[in-house]
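> forwarded from #structure-qc
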C-alpha cells in the first residue's frame, strides 16, 4: 500500500486500521491529510487481503475538521480550491463505494469533516466523552461533504436541520439515541470494540458483504448522486464570501501569538 504521512495505516489480520495522525491539532485535516483521505479508499479497495476497515483518530479527538491555514489557502488560491473540492468528492464517493465495510472508532470530538467521516462510515462506535458537531454555517460555509445530505436519512429531517443549521454539539449518548452512532462505550474500549466489529464483518463472505453494503447505501448513493455536485459548488462559492473570510480572520486574530 502507498506510504502515507498524515494517516497511519496498519493491518490487524483482515482488518485495516486507518488512524488520522495529527494529534497536536486534534486531527484537523491539513493539505496532506485531506489529500490522503481522498486517496486511501482506492488503495484499500485494491488491497487483496483487507476485508474491513476501522477509521479512528490519534490522541483525544477523532477529527476537529478543517485546518485553519488550509482554509486561508483555499480562500485565496483557485488551484487550491480545485484540489480541495476534488479531494472532498473522492472522500465521499470513496467511502460510500468502498466494497469493504468501514467502522468509525470515534475516540473523541468529531467536528465538521470529522462528523461527515462518521456519517459516511458503515458502523460507528463512540466514546462516552465524544460528541458530533457540524459548525460549517457558523464560519459562513455551506456543508457539502456529508452531514447535510446524510443526517436527514439517519435521524429525520427536522432534527438534522437543527443540528446542521445551529451547529450544536451532539453528545455521544444523544447521537446513539438519534441513530448517528451504533454504540457508545467507555473511551478506553472504543478502538477494541470497533476492531472486534470489523473482524466480525471480515468473516462474512466478501461478495455478499460488498453487494449488501451497496444495497443498503442505495438511498444515500441516490441522494449523493443528485446533490453532491450542487453542494460542492455551493460550498466553493461560500469559500470566498465576505462572511466566511471575516469569520476565519477573526479566528486567526484570536489565536495566541
Amino acid at each position: 500500500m502507498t506510504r502515507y504521512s498524515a494517516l497511519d495505516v496498519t493491518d490487524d489480520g483482515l482488518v485495516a486500521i486507518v488512524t488520522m495522525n495529527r494529534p497536536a491539532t486534534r486531527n484537523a485535516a491539513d493539505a496532506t491529510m485531506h489529500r490522503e483521505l481522498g486517496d486511501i479508499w482506492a488503495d484499500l479497495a485494491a488491497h487483496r487481503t483487507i476485508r474491513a476497515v476501522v477509521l479512528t483518530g490519534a490522541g483525544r479527538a477523532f477529527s476537529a475538521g478543517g485546518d485553519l491555514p488550509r482554509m486561508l489557502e483555499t480562500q485565496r488560491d483557485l488551484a487550491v480550491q480545485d484540489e480541495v473540492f476534488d479531494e472532498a468528492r473522492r472522500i465521499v464517493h470513496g467511502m460510500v463505494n468502498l466494497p469493504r465495510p468501514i467502522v468509525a472508532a470515534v475516540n473523541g470530538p468529531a467536528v465538521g469533516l470529522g462528523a461527515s467521516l462518521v456519517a459516511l462510515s458503515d458502523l460507528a462506535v463512540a466514546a462516552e466523552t465524544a460528541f458530533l458537531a457540524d459548525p460549517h454555517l457558523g464560519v459562513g460555509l455551506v456543508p457539502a461533504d456529508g452531514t447535510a445530505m446524510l443526517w436527514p436519512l439517519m435521524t429525520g429531517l427536522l432534527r438534522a436541520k437543527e443540528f446542521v443549521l445551529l451547529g450544536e454539539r451532539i453528545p455521544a449518548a444523544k447521537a446513539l439515541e438519534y441513530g448517528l452512532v451504533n454504540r457508545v462505550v467507555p473511551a478506553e474500549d472504543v478502538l477494541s470494540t470497533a476492531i472486534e466489529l470489523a473482524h466480525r464483518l471480515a468473516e462474512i463472505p466478501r461478495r455478499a458483504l460488498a453487494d449488501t453494503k451497496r444495497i443498503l447505501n442505495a438511498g444515500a448513493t441516490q441522494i449523493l448522486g443528485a446533490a453532491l455536485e450542487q453542494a460542492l459548488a455551493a460550498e466553493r462559492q461560500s469559500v470566498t464570501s465576505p462572511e466566511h473570510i471575516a469569520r476565519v480572520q477573526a479566528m486567526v486574530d484570536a489565536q495566541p501569538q
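QC bot note: Strands lie at 7-12, 15-20, 52-57, 102-106, 110-111, 123-127, 131-133, 170-171, 183-185. The CA atoms of residues 99 and 210 lie 5 Å apart.
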